[in-house]
Amino acid sequence: MADKNRLQLNDLGLKQLLETIPSGLFVVDLERRIIFWNREAERITGYQAAETLGKHCSFLDGIECGRSCGLFDSGTPEKPINGAICRIRHKDGHYLILSKNIDLLYDGNTVIGGIESFNDCTEQKRLEESLQRQKQQLEETVRVRTADLQAERTHLRQILDAMDDLAYIVSTDYRIDFLNAAMRRTFGELCGQTCYRAIHGTDAPCTDCPWFQIRSGDTVHQTHSDFPGQRIFDVIHTPLKTPEGLQKLAVCRDITERQRAHERLLEANRQLDAFVYTVSHDLRSPLTPIIGFAEFLQNEYKDRLDAQGIELLHDIETQGQRMLALMDDLLTLSRVGHLPEVETPVNTDAILQQILFEHTQDLLTIDVRHNPLPQLLIPESLVSELLDNLITNAIRYGCPGGCGQIDIDGAVSTSGQQITICDHGPGVPESDRRRIFDVFYRGSNAKQIPGTGIGLATVQKIVRLYGGQIKLSETDGGGCTAELLFPHPASQ
Known about the structure:
There is one protein chain. The chain is α+β, with helices and mostly antiparallel strands and 492 residues long. It has four domains: 12-120, Beta-Lactamase (2-Layer Sandwich), CATH 3.30.450; 149-254, PAS domain (Beta-Lactamase, 2-Layer Sandwich); 259-335, Orthogonal Bundle (Helix Hairpins); 348-491, Heat Shock Protein 90 (2-Layer Sandwich), CATH 3.30.565. It has helices at residues 12-19, 39-45, 49-52, 122-161, 181-187, 195-198, 211-215, 256-300, 307-335, 348-358, 380-398, 430-433, 455-465; strands at 24-29, 34-37, 81-89, 95-107, 110-120, 166-171, 176-179, 220-227, 231-242, 245-254, 366-370, 404-413, 416-423, 469-474, 480-486. The strands form three sheets. The protein has a five-stranded antiparallel sheet with strand order 2-1-5-4-3. Strands 7-6-10-9-8 form a five-stranded antiparallel sheet. A five-stranded mixed sheet has the order 11-12-13-15-14, with helices on one face. Strand 8 (220-227) and strand 9 (231-242) form a beta hairpin. Helix 10 (348-358) crosses helix 11. The chain is elongated, with a radius of gyration of 49 Å.
């Protein structure tokens, strides 16, 4: 089959078999001259068999195995060699990366040549190299980001340590990862313990634990009264991204004294309301007969009294009526906030119609223009008190001599439910607006007009009690505009 120096492939069946192999394949003799080159080798390298036969295999200009091709040199890896990677030059000049298998051909125990099969893995290797570069870039990005997060965490913990408020960080398994100095002073060292056991003294996570909202990226505000020493804390839970993953930062502010002061204030207000109610109710009772006696004496004994006596009786009746109005207003003010809450909004338009009907005589020469009003989730009696006070003020102070115009309007927007009552009279001086809602305060233009100075204080108390706002401003063209804004019923 072969002479001393040259290997010949004369077996037609063997050639046909080698042509069908789905890999590039060539055979060399002992001088490394190519004696066979199959069709897949032609496709991969661009060289036709006629161009390669008889040529030394180094014409491929490849990066060879070892100093030579590694096929026949001593000291090269034992044959066969499988999965070797080399690079050769394609006929058009660009380089290919090949994965190849190398083996020797024997005649008995004598090496007579070599065979190499190969596949083009250029794109695969380029893809691998690209993926490797991307991996390295990603690893570097992760390293830098981790370092940034670590620096941020260190900075955050330094800030938390300097705070007077208590603060701690927990992981998703409820384990405490960090406590600031204020927290350690209060609870001691708790790192590694579960927050529900260490802080709240329970054997399971709190029923109102905010972890579900935290995982969604929400910040949660809670008030806890189960801290040691019966202290009350406002707690703000915030999602925190750390090198360890998602954690929860809880900042706790001790509001015990503020809460107790608030409760004392509420109790003082309740006692004050009770006192006002009792005093006004008890003082109101003797006023009725005093007024009645003064009227009786004026009517039945006017022939026996001189002018001065009749005038004094008239003053007694007038002052009694004034005191009775004051007691009525004080009773109304004290009752605000003591009515049961309503479950459905009231018909504000129907209440307005009733108030306008009750003021029929006052409105004979006044033009009242009104649009539909929003329904309010406020007791009907308080809505009536609120509207009656504002309309009465518009009549008394905004329509001098009983003439003028009052505009009543309502609107609903994203900011809430609005009611406006406008008059076109002299208006409220800027200097009076700061104190106009104070109890017993009466503006500079109200000296000659009957009133107790309690009406607007009652309005403000109702508005604040139901989460609203009230503002007095100047009507375009002159006059006073009262603007009321209440939250939507669903948010009250």
